[in-house]
Amino acid sequence: MGVITSLTSLDDALKRLLEGLETAPVLDEPIDEALGRISAGLTAPGPLPVGAVAMIDGWAVRSLDIVGASSYSPAFLAEPPVWVETGQPLPEGCDSLVEPQSLNRESGIFQAVAEARPGQGVRRAGDEIAAKSLVIKPGQRIRPLDLLIATRLGLRSLSVRTPRLQLVNMASASGQSSTAQYIAYLAEQAGAAVTRTDSDARTAPAIASVLNASEADLIVTVGGTGTGKTDATIDALQSAGVAITHGIAMIPGRTAAIGYLRSVPLIALPGMLEDALAAWWTLALPVLDRLTMRQRPTTARPIARKIASAPGVADIVLLGSEEEAWMPLSVGELPLQALANADAWMLVPGNSEGFPAGALCPAYPLG
Question: What start-end ranges are recorded for coiled-coil regions in this protein (predicted)?
Answer without folding.
Answer: none
